[in-house]
Amino acid sequence: MEYLRIQLNVENIPELDPGFIPLYKFNQAFLKDAEKPVGIAVERADGEMAVCRTFIHGAEEMRKADHYYINRLVKTILWMKGGFKIYVCGDQDTYEYLSAAYSAGGEQEFDRDYMAGVFEHPFEVVLVDELPEAKDAPKPMGGHMEGCRIGFDAGGSDRKVSAVIDGETVYSEEVVWFPKINSDPDYHYEGIVAALKSAASHMPRVDAVGVSSAGIFINNRTMAASLFLQVPKDLFDQKVKDIYIRAITDTFGPIPYSVVNDGDVSALAGAISLEDTNILGIAMGTSEAVGYVDGQGRITGWLNELAFVPVDANPAAMEDEWSHDIGCGVKYFSQDSVIKLAPAAGIELDAALSPAEKLKAVQKLMEEGDDRATAIYRSIGTYLAHTLVLYHDLYAFRSVLLLGRVMSGKGGDTLLDTCRKVLANEYPEVCDKINIALPDERFRRVGQSAAAASLPEIR
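Above: the chain sequence. Below: its structure as tokens.
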């Protein structure tokens, strides 16, 4: 297999997607003969800095490969850790290429504008003589069980809340709501407050509140979240960025609170369940939601938006409708992947069905033993094996917890079995380093909202 003059060998190809080029394989083959050193750093909130020292070829005939490698590397850092300023050291051409790519009208304009909005800072690319020092600020968060706590989990179709006293859940409720189609942020605020008050009524007092929510949060503020999709930008800035902070302090006063991405809370619940740390959680549902707990059991504060991290170097890979980029995780590890592969499997899905209904239709075929549906899950399992090695290269995690609707039923079993076989066959040197875990009964007992309750520390 060859792409951009880079020769690579891939033994396990997804049967329904023969054009798939695992980005990990491309990167390893690219670096084999690359000798010109280049440094990249990305600055994020509070002076935190992600630093990567790598190599390119530097020759004119390899320029396209150099640009492609650097493009995918920078995009990976941005969506893994977040940032608004790219530092380039060691190569003028790399600086000029990234400056153009991340300019108005450039090929990465979406990433530029999105990150500028998240970090409330103009996006920059600068050339430097020396890279800044790497800096991270992971937070020891979660696992606090003492006192009377509330855990709130804001989902796209329902909201869950738990009242927890000294680690024991004394009350839980789940309420259907419609946050994604409501443009009035007061609807969201009132729903959050109602849930908090409901849980509080089952405890003698409230000592702390933890929130698990889809979205990007910096210092407990909502910087981007699909739950508020219909809220106009001016109202988002006025009423949504501090919505959880306001709901908690308006209801209970100045008590400890934490607001964290739901992927990180899933990983935290997995850490509590597995009694271990250094865990990557991947939920394959509407999108690919990811969270990470480091080796000290801390939440890093990184974005962990791996749905928009590249995994496939195939130039004909499917485009994501939101970011308009190709080859990113959302089209490989969500219900979109099942739907994408259905035509290649010979399955025609009713166009009038919603994405969730299309997934259910394929799952029904899977339960009936349809070989076409089985091929879909084998293909996703192959995607996953190649990509777990890429993610392990990024995070060096010890365990990966697989969640979400795509993992349910016979399809999930086939997907996992294929993934393990491909890992053992193609990546034996990494296979033994990765413990793949599924949610067990203990994880379900911990629950997302109960895990959220353990987030804040009571001082």
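The longest strand covers residues 168-176.
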